């Protein structure tokens, strides 16, 4: 393998390598506690909102490095609305969920209108939204915490997939799902390879594809194995999986998804080529509002309450995950898998330092340094490319 290919490989998989190194470091420092089944479960549950918000934030960043500062406040507001409906007014759980999604979408439409069609800078619009919806959250909650959530609602997010094989202390269903997921991934990967070969496109070396499939399959099966040793697959993992798969497909396989990259790469060129750039901006922020509502549903289920401080700094976690996961600060590049890696890295750092008993303030320092390093790497890489 020549130097150019080695360089390309490390550039492409930098964050994956960093994630592996960080996990090994914390596993060593915590005496293996990081990889305990319960801690793997906690890693998923505690960072579910990050996976959801970062997926939506990526679309905003793709349009040119734009961000949404309001998502934490929107999560708090939508959660307050949902809790008020379900707990205080005894509104049906499913109707409440529909209303929460509608509220989030309307907020996204409101902000998207000003950003896309009136061309108010996203930073200003979402900063205003951050202040407005945080204030509205306190108005709805009247400064109090609303709890507990109905059990039917909690079951949608906080419960676990039933073990159909009824394993004794080991969730066999979880392991079966891991094996099936690995098989589906491998088949789809090689199916895509054969399709590209048939069309005459360049493909990776067969050895590289085999190695990638082996590594990914091992990760999936190992994850499900550890979860099987605790309570099995948490419902929230299914929610995350569905969202990730949908948006990975949209960004990589659809025309609309490619428009986000085109606008971020060169908006003027995209407009001249016939892309409705206003609509792209509008969709990015309307979608962000919708996913903020989903994150609100996850959050109040996780906390079993809605309180005035919910969602605090959520926007920073989402933005950080995107940039750490390889999204460009200038827009036009970034992937959903990269965002998931970035969010996982943030979660591992949080969990690892918490297990080690490191002060929360130092945790913020480390996360800030990791974010800065990721953006510096992106900027310097682009300078070298030029």
TrEMBL record:
Organism of provenance: Ohessyouella blattaphilus
Stored InterPro entries: ABC_transp_permease
Membrane topology (UniProt): Multi-pass membrane protein
Function: Part of the binding-protein-dependent transport system for D-xylose. Probably responsible for the translocation of the substrate across the membrane.
Transmembrane segments: 12-31, 43-62, 69-87, 93-116, 123-149, 169-188, 209-227, 233-250, 280-301, 336-358
UniProt-annotated location(s): Cell membrane
NCBIfam families recorded: GguB
Keyword annotations: Cell inner membrane, Cell membrane, Membrane, Sugar transport, Transmembrane, Transmembrane helix, Transport
Protein known as: Xylose transport system permease protein XylH
Lineage: superkingdom: Bacteria
Name of the gene this protein is made from: gguB
